[in-house]
């Protein structure tokens, strides 16, 4: 049995470190380890673990994976969210809302649908066509409603 000179605890004869305080037994007790054994401190100094390019002797994060570089997207379409398709869907919603609210909303949907078709995008073409149709319908619908109200007021 070895005795730790830091805390006085009894340690196994083959122990390199004290289980109570963590001090190195071979250097504290004055006896070197068995021939061919290397102390942990000398091993850590001679074999630093690289952590994300850092070769210091700290083993705190040696199991962490390298951090990947951030991915930069140039546009929403590149990210897979269909940036221009969203414009066509918005135009369709405005065209439909114009049928129930007011003609101005329908006109905005109509114009947005026309500009989307002129852009040549194929992905949201159906939404743009629906926006044009419902936008035009809202203008006609609101026009008929205004004419009917004018006739009734006479």
Written description of the protein model:
This protein has helices spanning 25-28, 40-46, 83-100, 103-119, 125-153; strands at residues 2-3, 10-11. It is mainly α and 154 residues long. The protein has two domains: 1-59, no CATH class; 83-153. A two-stranded antiparallel sheet has the order 1-2. Strand 1 and strand 2 form a beta hairpin. Helix 3 (83-100) packs antiparallel against helix 4. The longest helix has 29 residues, at 125-153. Residues 27-33 and 56-61 have low confidence and may be disordered.
Lateral arrangement of strands in the main beta sheet: 1-2
Sketch the major β-sheet: 2 strands, antiparallel
Overall number of structural domains: 2
Structural class: mainly alpha
Strand segment count: 2
Outline, from the CA principal axes?
A: rod-shaped
Helix content: 40-55%
Helix count, DSSP H or I runs of 4 or more residues: 5
> Roughly what is the average pLDDT, rounded to an integer?
75
Order of helices and strands: EEHHHHH
Which blocks of ≥5 consecutive residues have pLDDT under 50? 27-33, 56-61
Strand percentage, roughly? under 5%
N-to-C terminal Cα separation, in Å?
A: 116 Å
* Radius of gyration based on Cα positions: 39 Å
Protein traits:
2 strands, mainly alpha, 5 helices, two-stranded antiparallel ribbon, 154 residues, rod-shaped
């Amino acid at each position: 049995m070895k005795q730790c000179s830091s805390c006085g605890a009894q340690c196994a004869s083959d122990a390199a470190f004290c289980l109570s305080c963590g001090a190195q037994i071979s250097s504290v007790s004055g006896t070197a380890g068995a021939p061919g054994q290397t102390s942990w401190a000398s091993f850590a100094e001679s074999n630093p673990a690289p952590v994300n390019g850092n070769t210091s002797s700290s083993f705190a994060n040696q199991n962490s994976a390298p951090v990947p570089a951030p991915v930069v997207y140039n546009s929403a379409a590149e990210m897979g969210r269909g940036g221009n398709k969203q414009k066509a869907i918005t135009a369709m919603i405005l065209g439909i809302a114009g049928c129930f609210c007011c003609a101005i909303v329908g006109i905005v949907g109509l114009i947005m649908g026309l500009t989307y078709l002129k852009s040549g995008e194929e992905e949201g073409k159906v939404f743009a066509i629906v926006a044009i149709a419902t936008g035009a319908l809202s203008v006609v619908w609101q026009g008929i409603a205004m004419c009917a109200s004018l006739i009734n007021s006479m």
